Amino acid sequence: MKRVRSIAVSMVMGCSLTLGQVPAAVADPSSETPAPTTAEPAAPSAPGSSVSSTPEPGARSTFDQAAPSTPDPAVPATSVPAAPSAADPTAPPAVGPTPPAAQADPGPSAFQRWIDDHIPGPASILPRTGSAAAAPEASPGGLWKAIQSSPTGDPFFDVAPANLAQYAPGDIIQTRDVTWPAVPMVFLTVLTPVQHAVQLKFRTTNSAGEPSFGTATLLLPFNKWTGPGSRPVLLNAPPINALNRRCTPGYVFSHGYDLTSGNGNDFVPSPTMWAASQNYAVVIPDHEGPLMSYAEPTVAGHIMLDTVRAVRHLMPDQFGESRFAMTGYSGGAIASYSASMLSSEYAPELSPYLVGAAMGGLPVDYESFARTFDGTYASGLMLSVTLALAREHPEILGRMNHLAQWAAISPLKDVCSSTMADVGVFVPYAALANMRDPLHTEFADMLFRRLSLKGKKAGMPIYVYNGLHDPWIPVANADAFFDQQCALGVPATKSIVGGEHILGYFDGFLGSTHWLGERLSGVPAADNCQVAPRSNTAPQQSNSSDPASSAPRPATSPGP
């Protein structure tokens, strides 16, 4: 069936491409709706409690009770869906002609208009069938609900407590022992023996600053810690790169492996393998969040930092004074990078305990990434990212044409990393948007700015590595990011290794783990910068600095 689905999607997209200009993402006016309501809070468990606390029956709100927020009125309804990103002016321009200036509304092409004239929107076909894509008068957040990940059937991942707002970020909502099947799963996936596994569900904050929840899995080694101080902890952020909550490490550790879930894209050798060999504890966050908003940096960074808070709350005697370091590659690097950039403002009290963040193959410049791979062999990945971002930024839905909206509520919304190509290869954004040049519009520029963490100073030492011949993440972008952090006075180390994107991971593994080992052992980070630091008072760009970015977005009670 997967092959049939892939062929069908490719045929539809291919037909559009052969006609020159593919469908545009026209916002079905019925899909844009008011902000969601918040469940009435009840008394939470005491902050920092390590006791499992489950919300009362009948006082829980499921994800499908949330509706999307009202799209930003400052942005025209005909603006375009844009993949995430933050343009980096120090990075070299993409190969090709100079991109045109952003346009407020370049308008659809004749063929794009034809697409929407001949393909009815989901809301017009499914108004009274009970579908999540119901007309707005029956279900205000219908289309937004319909693009969410299908439920796993496990309330631990599917259900938010009604009293979520009364928890502080990092407070534990629920814990459970998942030693079985997690211990054999860790051994099968990354060849690592561990003794015990505990899953944590905790309060965090979404991209709009609203209460959300996160999940993570804590792995404890066999041997007693005999080193100085408390046992160090490594946060390993594997590149989950998925749209379905069944694809997360947490779900796999608690339910076992199957062909549709994958293992969160962890590799051998794995940072988990290395950390366990050093007798460190390992915690693996589900850093895409409950909405599975793949590549949303603020969501990922907040979950990483609240994972640290939650682990310290869970076992204060063991981890209250521990050193914490974090690492990630590619999609996982987004999480370690975002946590380092947001730590000073979001979790300043953790500063004494956060000793370093390693990040490799980091897509720091989303704008360059989107424009470089628009309509190429990597377009399936980029279109998946755009759909995932629409879960946190539903304004994107208003820039999808009817064809794109149907694709967004189809089984494609549940793909894992191994099936990203099912979304379509060699499909340009113009195939799914309602304007001629969707990546060069005011809406695209606004979204790139909203997703950018550029200008922020890392709140901990960083280690940046990149493959010399990486076609996805150019070395120049890693160089520019390293130079920017050096100029801000961050103790930084850079390693350019051989290979492209995949080989870059393996070639950079030993260097990154050696650096992490020194940080977790208490060795101060060397400053390998070669530029004079700027004043720490340099202005920082905030996600909320753009007026358009302050528009309300969905509360965390996500998806169906």
Write the layout of secondary structure elements.
Blueprint: H1 2-18, E1 60-62, H2 110-118, H3 122-125, H4 142-146, H5 155-158, E2 159-161, E3 172-177, H6 179-190, E4 196-205, E5 211-220, E6 233-237, H7 249-255, H8 271-277, E7 281-285, H9 297-314, H10 316-319, E8 324-329, H11 331-346, E9 354-360, H12 366-373, H13 379-392, H14 402-408, H15 442-451, E10 462-467, H16 475-487, E11 492-497, H17 501-520
Parallel strand pairs: 6-7, 6-8, 8-9, 9-10, 10-11
Antiparallel strand pairs: 1-2, 3-4, 4-5, 5-7
Helix pairs in contact: 6-7, 9-11
Explain the overall architecture.
- With 560 residues, this protein is an alpha/beta fold.
- 31% of the residues lie in helices and 12% in strands.
- It is built from 17 helices and eleven strands.
- It has helices at 2-18, 110-118, 122-125, 142-146, 155-158, 179-190, 249-255, 271-277, 297-314, 316-319, 331-346, 366-373, 379-392, 402-408, 442-451, 475-487, 501-520, and strands at 60-62, 159-161, 172-177, 196-205, 211-220, 233-237, 281-285, 324-329, 354-360, 462-467, 492-497.
- The chain has a nine-stranded mixed β-sheet with strand order 3-4-5-7-6-8-9-10-11, with helices on both faces. A two-stranded antiparallel sheet has the order 1-2.
Order of helices and strands: HEHHHHEEHEEEHHEHHEHEHHHHEHEH
- Note the beta-strand portion: 5-15%
By oligomeric state, this entry counts as single chain
* Strand order across the largest sheet: 3-4-5-7-6-8-9-10-11
C-alpha-based Rg, rounded? 22 Å
What level of helicity do the residues show? 25-40%
pLDDT below 50 for ≥5 consecutive residues: which ranges?
1-99, 128-140, 535-552, 556-560
> Could you report the average pLDDT, rounded to the nearest whole number?
79
Overall, the morphology is globular
Query: Which structural class should the secondary elements be placed in?
Result: alpha/beta
Query: Which sheet architecture does the biggest sheet show?
Result: 9 strands, mixed
Tell me the number of strands: 11
Span from first to last CA?
A: 23 Å
Number of helices: 17
